[in-house]
Design brief:
- Keywords: Hydrolase.
- One of its GO terms (molecular function) is hydrolase activity.
- This is SGNH/GDSL hydrolase family protein.
- This protein is an alpha/beta fold.
- The chain is 52% helix and 8% strand.
- The protein has ten helices and five strands, in the order ααβααβαβααβαβαα.
- It has helices at residues 2-39, 49-60, 71-74, 85-94, 121-130, 141-146, 151-168, 198-212, 219-229, 246-261; strands spanning 65-69, 105-109, 134-138, 173-177, 215-217.
- Strands 2-1-3-4-5 form a five-stranded parallel β-sheet, with helices on both faces.
- α8 links the parallel β4 (173-177) and β5.
- α4 crosses α10 (246-261).
- The N and C termini lie far apart (72 Å).
Length: 271
């Protein structure tokens, strides 16, 4: 008798599970066409990066985002990864839409790496394997300047990075961004062997990237503008003259976030 009771309970539970899943699936299917059209890039060709991530989540069940660059992408100088610009942008995205509540931004920043070294297989292979929907590439020009990488080699490496990822990830949104402003150079002379300053690399790479028509965010300029408008001194945002502290990373995220939300091809509002 006990055996039959047990079988009856199992059968009842299975039926309940089946109908619950059927109802849930029906609700999802009925809501999907409208939602997809709202976020589909075919209907919104200039959609924001945030909206594109929502669309990709609806299509595949999970949106993916990755970043690559140097130590300021890695998060050196912060007290915790949640305090970095990556961690803060991740938290912001998770709060924008239920479709992004489990989003993780994978971090492929490497301390001391130039833009040339970002092309090494152990850097690129994990990114390509992840198939990110959005990829941020920090130009690493702090290290390019310090380690005397010529501007020609810098441009060539950026071109190779774009070709590699755009060819392998044709549906991904690729964005280059400059590193943060610095007050001093602890790893090299103010002028490198080419007679160039760090800011020369920022300005020249910005011009090059824009001429190629690639997506670009001027972290360096946006942070300086924000700090000037808020009477924040640059040294107070840095741990060691180069790497941001928690305050500096917060400012980085604060100025980057409007760009992530902004329709592509328009100018984000200034914080």
């Amino acid at each position: 008798m006990n055996k039959w009771k047990w079988l009856i309970w199992v059968a009842a539970g299975a039926l309940l599970f089946f109908y619950t899943r059927t109802d849930t699936k029906h609700d999802e299917v009925s809501a999907k066409p409208t939602d997809i059209q709202t976020y589909d890039p075919k209907y919104n060709p200039n959609q924001s990066l945030a909206d594109y991530l929502v669309f990709r989540s609806m299509m595949s069940g999970q949106a993916k985002m990755a970043i690559t660059g140097s130590s300021v992408t890695r998060g050196s100088g912060s007290s915790h990864q949640s305090k970095t610009w990556r961690g803060r942008i991740e938290a912001n995205l998770r709060n924008t839409n239920p479709a992004l509540r489990d989003l993780t931004i994978s971090n492929h920043g490497h301390s001391g790496y130039t833009s040339v070294r970002l092309l090494e297989d152990h850097v690129t292979a994990p990114i390509l394997q992840e198939l990110p929907d959005v990829l941020f590439i920090e130009t690493s020009v702090i290290n390019n300047h310090n380690k005397n990488v010529s501007l020609d080699d810098t441009f060539a490496s950026l071109n190779s990075l774009y070709k590699l990822y755009s060819d392998a990830l044709p549906e991904a949104r690729i964005v280059f961004l400059s590193p943060n402003p610095c007050t001093e150079n602890k790893f090299g002379p103010t002028l490198n062997q080419f007679g160039l300053k760090f800011t020369d690399y920022v300005e020249e790479t910005a011009d090059y990237i824009k001429k190629q028509g690639w997506n670009y965010f001027d972290t360096h300029g946006a942070m300086l503008y924000h700090m000037s408008s808020k009477n924040i001194t640059l040294p107070s945002t840095l741990k060691d003259g180069i790497h941001p502290n928690d305050r500096g990373y917060k400012i980085w995220a604060d100025v980057l976030w409007p760009f992530v939300q902004q329709k592509q091809g328009t100018t984000p509002s200034t914080m």
